Amino acid sequence: MENTNLPESAAAPFLLSDAARRALFLEARSNVAFADAAVDPTVVRRVWDLAKWGPTSNNTQPLRLVIASSGEAREAVLAAAAPGNRPKLEQAPLIAVAAHDDRFHDHHDVWAGGNPAVFDRFEADPAGRSWIARSGSMLQLGYVIVGLRGEGLAVRPYGGFDRAALDRTLMPEHWRAEVLLGIGYPAEDHGAGDRKGRIPADTAVRVL
To answer: How big is the CA angle at 194 (ends 193 and 198), to the nearest 5 degrees?
Structure first.
């Protein structure tokens, strides 16, 4: 990992150690190249069971993950990837598809136990439910990516692919593909090129 100086604004007392902050944010990269080591899908399951506790709207859980573990599933994802993304994605030891579940409210008894009116509200509002499904799944995906980094993995997300094709070939009913993930243990040369800049808090955060 490259030697990134800790920004002064991040040097104040913090619950996470300096090493943890570097691993999760400052030195983690969206790798193209990975170490020659397999990734056990149970690691992803373990991360899910941690990341699911991140806050969401009404505790909803619309994110779904399809791990393309078999050769057939992996080939289906690669075939759906945009031509520019395919050779990069091929290098990932493990490929996953992040999706949203249009009927996430069917599981309301888990995240809204004792309140069956929640189901009725989402069932009666397909448009609102769709917005929650997509926005909530992306929020949860952020937690999952940070969780995977916490397991020592590198993750590269891809948005360029044929979503309809994967919905037909890999997705269970009511699941809709959103993002492809190339996952693996970092190689010494991450293959992602020089790190690009990020806008500072002075530009992005407004205190009123």
So the answer is: 120
Please give the torsion angle defined by the CA atoms of residues 126, 129, 134 and 135, in that order, rounded to the nearest 10 degrees. Answer: 140
Distance CA 185, CA 35 (A): 5
Domains of the chain in start order, with CATH, are 38-186 (3.40.109.10)
pLDDT band at 12 (very low <50, low <70, confident <90, very high): low
Check: CB of residue 23 under 8 Å from CB of residue 154: no
Record the tokens describing residue 125, joined without a space: 């509002």
Q: Which helix (H) or strand (E) holds 156?
A: strand 154-158
CB 63 within 8 A of CB 132: no
**pTM recorded for the entire structure:** 0.91
